[in-house]
């Protein structure tokens, strides 16, 4: 009887948690749940965008509040596919998809109704899906290019592609792993409880580190700063007197930093030279295959390397490199060797100016995120528009 | 450390086995050090300030108790009040006074400097609460109602006791100190009762108050952008939010105390089911109301003076209660509104005029006291009197504007559940439900569900502070 009671209690708990979550829709969890709603499982490339979605996505910290929709083929935006028109396709990961901005503010959407010099009007199609690496992109293009009338393909490889590739193949090469991924994806999509469990267990480890490990590490570091003979870089204080004055400052209300002030990073963040970043062979293979696919369908292909971190843009504006851009720089060498048509957007960061005409990448990036704001998307659009004009002569 | 955080869950899990495996003296030590850790997690720099207040109170209270000369006793009492209220004034009210001085001089044309003279100090967490506790302790010793603790450790544990340190209830020494003397033994029934009260607190804070705060924040930030209905709904919801936020904190404090073997008195007694404004105040933040009654109202002469003076004492006490909440004209006006109605009701009762209103049905009286509280709460929430007036104008002129998305199911269902809970409790039906076999079976899965949901929320996002922390 006790065992039955216990099992019944577990079911009641699961049921109640699901019901409570569905009623109260906590902001943070709802943010992740809505993201699950606009994704669907795909057997060929694991994840795709759900078709005919219309969602308002509000960041739980108020960082953005956007409109996210997809058309009948699961492409970002509401425009129906018109194969009677020539098309410009954009493909890449979340940066291309336009994470954090509304449909109409993505750089790809801005290319809609682009007119070339002959007067041909193009429909833009956003094929971007978050967390896509080159292998997933190659598979998606193989499947969807025959259904479209694309004349120009803009491909945006990303800094995190090596990790995306690793994740992709770890699932695709292992049947059990793929099956588990499929069912956890579906469970998280349809059960609030499961999604909440998944998000919580992902965050739990980080929060534990943040609470216990970081504070101890910080204490040890501060102690070292004061006690060590050789003063370390970036020490907030190096003597007990400085520590005392720093503690006194804790009594004061911190002044609010003005919005969109230019960022400032430590000197050692930017380097003159960049290091090689190991790139998986699948990235090279897939890139070659994408090129072949485009050639086969007589599609013009342009590759864009984009600085997706504010640190990269900051260093670039100083004429220096940031380690986060090492991947793109290494890939750039490959593109040069293969004689592929590409543009390094990092060379255009001098155009990132704020309302006071200062060099300032801050308004171009979503706070604490690796994505472009409305202004950032506009910046990309201006560059790709010029390139499209040049290519589609 | 916040009650509504992942850290607090871990904190309790570590504390309980250590605490219940100690003898009485060690239990006190464990509570002391864990309480200190709890407070220092919020802001370590305020710990010395806390102890400065404790030391002053401890030694002046001992002095008052042992010295027989009235002059010296008075001097020690004055010294203690001066230090404790001085610290409170410096951190909480100095900027407000400086801004009044500046406005006054500007309006007189004596001084026209527009630069800010504010000290810009952060309000140390819990200062309003522990200062009032410390004052009550000294005054009780002075009045001969309390024998002071000889050991500083025992005395400081009374003020430092973490469940009530940051936002009350403002416990008296006579209510708490004796509870430290006995060894606390693990008791499963008490644990389950405590968890139940904590869950009720989490429900009020995390499931009702926080989502409301998110929804109404844009309306309060820009009242003219929204239509009158949204402004009115925001005002109604804020009243619910502030209750759930603070009552939620008190419930978690009471529940935590219960688990640790302590009885912490109720701080809220269903204030929105009161039939008069004065009754609302007797049921709202009970520990503050009774503190103000015992140490302000009675000190001013209470009802042992002329009727006019008595009315004034009552009004002044309520205004002080408002000012205690924050250094802004909005809080003074909030206190004054409630003071006016409390005085008016007392005048009616004293003259036996209340009989004319007795025919009114109870719901009408409840609505009256709720509406008065709600209209005052608008000042409580607004950043300035000007913003509050703008918002009131928006409501009373039935202005157009954007309709805010405020009355959603995620708010409506929890609020309705809470209202039902309070009505059942008011009419003693809740006790019958709690004692029913069905509830006895469902209570553990229900508590577990609420704890799991809260834990999930606290893990994914940093929890918002309790509203009363700013006081």
Plain-language structure description:
The complex is a heterodimer of chains A (393) and B (471). Chain A is an alpha/beta fold. Helix content of chain A is 46%, strand content 13%. In chain A, strand 3 and strand 4 (65-69) form a beta hairpin. The mean pLDDT of chain A is 87. Chain B has 19 helices and no strands. The longest helix of chain B has 39 residues, at 70-108. The A-B interface holds A 5, 9-10, 12-13, 16-17, 20-21, 23-29, 32, 60-61, 196-197, 199-200, 203-204, 207, 211, 247, 250-253 and B 6-7, 10, 43-45, 120-122, 207, 211, 214, 409-410, 413-414, 441-442, 444-446, 448-450, 452-453, 455-457, 459-461.
Brief overview, please?
The complex is a heterodimer of chains A (393) and B (471). Chain A is α/β, with parallel strands linked by helices and 393 residues long. Chain A is 46% helix and 13% strand.
Helix and strand arrangement:
The complex is a heterodimer of chains A (393) and B (471).
Chain A: H1 2-24, H2 27-37, E1 39-42, E2 46-49, E3 54-58, E4 65-69, E5 87-92, H3 94-97, H4 107-110, E6 114-115, E7 121-126, H5 134-144, E8 150-156, H6 161-172, H7 175-190, H8 192-227, H9 240-249, E9 270-271, H10 281-296, E10 300-305, H11 310-317, E11 321-322, H12 326-337, E12 342-344, H13 374-391
Parallel strand pairs in A: 5-7, 5-8, 8-10, 10-12
Antiparallel strand pairs in A: 1-2, 3-4, 6-7, 9-11
Chain B: H1 6-20, H2 24-42, H3 47-66, H4 70-108, H5 127-142, H6 152-160, H7 162-165, H8 173-176, H9 188-221, H10 228-260, H11 277-283, H12 286-297, H13 307-325, H14 329-350, H15 362-381, H16 385-396, H17 409-426, H18 429-435, H19 437-460
Helix pairs in contact in B: 1-2, 2-6, 3-4, 3-5, 3-6, 4-5, 9-10, 9-17, 9-19, 10-15, 10-16, 12-13, 13-14, 14-15
Defining key terms:
heterodimer, A: 393 residues, alpha/beta, Rossmann fold, six-stranded mixed β-sheet, two-stranded antiparallel ribbon, 12 strands, globular, B: 471 residues, mainly alpha, 2 domains
């Amino acid at each position: 009887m006790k065992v039955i009671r216990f099992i019944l209690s577990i079911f009641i708990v699961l049921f109640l948690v699901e019901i409570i979550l569905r009623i109260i829709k906590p902001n943070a969890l709802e943010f992740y749940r809505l993201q699950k709603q606009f994704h669907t499982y795909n057997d060929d490339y694991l994840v795709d965008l759900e078709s005919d979605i219309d969602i308002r996505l509000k960041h739980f910290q108020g960082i953005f509040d956007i409109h996210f929709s997809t058309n009948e083929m699961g492409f970002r935006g509401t425009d129906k596919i018109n194969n009677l028109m020539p098309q410009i396709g954009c493909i890449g990961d979340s940066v291309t998809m336009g994470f954090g901005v509304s449909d109409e503010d993505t750089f790809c959407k801005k290319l809609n109704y682009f007119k070339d010099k002959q007067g041909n009007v193009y429909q833009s199609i956003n094929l971007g899906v978050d967390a896509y690496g080159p292998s997933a992109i190659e598979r998606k293009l193989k499947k969807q290019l025959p259904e479209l009338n694309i004349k120009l393909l803009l491909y945006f490889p990303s800094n995190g592609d090596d990790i995306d590739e690793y994740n992709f193949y770890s699932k695709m090469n292992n049947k059990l792993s793929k099956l588990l991924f499929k069912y956890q994806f579906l469970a998280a999509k349809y059960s609030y409880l499961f999604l909440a469990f998944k998000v919580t267990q992902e965050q739990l480890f980080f929060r534990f580190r943040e609470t216990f490990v970081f504070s101890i590490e910080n204490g040890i570091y501060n102690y070292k700063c004061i006690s060590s003979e050789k003063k370390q870089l970036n020490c907030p204080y190096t003597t007990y007197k400085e520590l005392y004055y720093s503690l006194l400052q804790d009594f004061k209300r911190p002044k609010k930093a003005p919005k969109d002030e230019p960022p400032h990073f430590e000197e050692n963040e930017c380097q003159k030279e960049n290091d090689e970043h190991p790139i998986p062979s699948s990235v090279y293979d897939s890139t070659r295959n994408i090129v072949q696919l485009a050639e086969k369908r007589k599609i013009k292909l342009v590759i864009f390397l984009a600085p997706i971190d504010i640190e990269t843009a900051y260093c670039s504006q100083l004429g220096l490199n940031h380690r986060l851009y090492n991947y793109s720089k290494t890939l750039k060498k490959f593109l040069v060797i293969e004689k592929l048509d590409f543009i390094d957007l990092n060379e255009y960061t001098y155009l990132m100016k704020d309302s006071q005409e200062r060099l300032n990448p801050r308004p171009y990036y979503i706070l604490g995120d690796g994505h472009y704001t409305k202004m950032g998307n506009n910046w990309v659009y201006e560059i790709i528009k010029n390139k499209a004009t040049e290519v589609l002569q | 450390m916040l009650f509504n955080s992942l850290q607090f869950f871990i904190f309790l899990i570590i504390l309980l086995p250590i605490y219940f495996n100690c003898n009485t003296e060690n239990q006190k030590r464990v509570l002391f050090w864990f309480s200190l850790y709890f407070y220092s997690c919020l802001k370590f720099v305020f710990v010395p300030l806390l102890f400065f207040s404790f030391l002053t109170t401890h030694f002046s209270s001992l002095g008052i108790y042992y010295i027989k000369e009235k002059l010296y006793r008075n001097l020690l009492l004055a010294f203690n009040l001066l230090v404790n209220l001085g610290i409170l004034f410096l951190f909480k009210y100095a900027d407000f006074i400086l801004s009044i001085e500046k406005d006054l001089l500007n309006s007189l044309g004596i001084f026209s400097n527009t630069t800010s003279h504010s000290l810009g100090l952060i309000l140390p967490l819990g200062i309003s609460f522990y200062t009032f506790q410390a004052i009550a302790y000294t005054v009780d010793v002075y009045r001969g109602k309390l024998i002071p603790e000889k050991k500083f450790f025992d005395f400081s544990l009374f003020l430092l006791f973490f469940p009530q340190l940051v936002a009350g209830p403002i416990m008296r020494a006579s209510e708490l100190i004796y509870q430290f003397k006995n060894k606390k033994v693990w008791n499963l029934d008490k644990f389950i009762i405590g968890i139940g009260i904590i869950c009720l607190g989490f429900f009020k804070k995390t499931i009702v108050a926080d989502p409301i705060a998110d929804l109404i924040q844009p309306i309060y930030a820009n009242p003219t952008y929204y239509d009158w209905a949204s402004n009115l709904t925001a005002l109604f919801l804020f009243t619910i939010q502030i209750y759930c936020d603070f009552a939620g904190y008190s419930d978690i404090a009471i529940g935590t105390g219960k688990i640790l073997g302590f009885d912490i008195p109720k701080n809220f007694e269903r204030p929105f089911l009161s039939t008069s404004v004065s009754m609302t105040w007797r049921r709202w933040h009970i520990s503050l109301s009774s503190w103000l009654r015992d140490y302000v109202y009675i000190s001013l002469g209470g009802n042992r003076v002329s009727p006019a003076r008595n009315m004034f004492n009552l009004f002044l006490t309520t205004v002080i209660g408002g000012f205690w909440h924050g250094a802004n004209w909005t809080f003074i006006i909030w206190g004054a509104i409630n003071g006016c109605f409390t005085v008016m009701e007392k005048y009616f009762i004293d003259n036996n005029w209340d009989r004319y209103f007795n025919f009114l049905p109870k719901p009408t009286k409840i609505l009256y006291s709720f509406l008065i509280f709600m209209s005052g709460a608008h000042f409580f929430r607004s950043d300035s009197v000007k913003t509050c007036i703008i918002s009131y104008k928006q409501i009373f002129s039935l202005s157009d504007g954007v309709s805010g998305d405020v009355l959603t199911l995620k708010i409506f269902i929890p609020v309705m559940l809470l209202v039902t809970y309070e009505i059942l409790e008011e009419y003693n039906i809740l006790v019958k439900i709690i004692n029913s076999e069905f509830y006895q079976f469902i209570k553990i899965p229900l508590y577990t569900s609420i704890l799991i949901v809260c834990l999930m929320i606290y893990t994914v996002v940093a929890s918002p502070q309790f509203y009363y922390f700013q006081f």
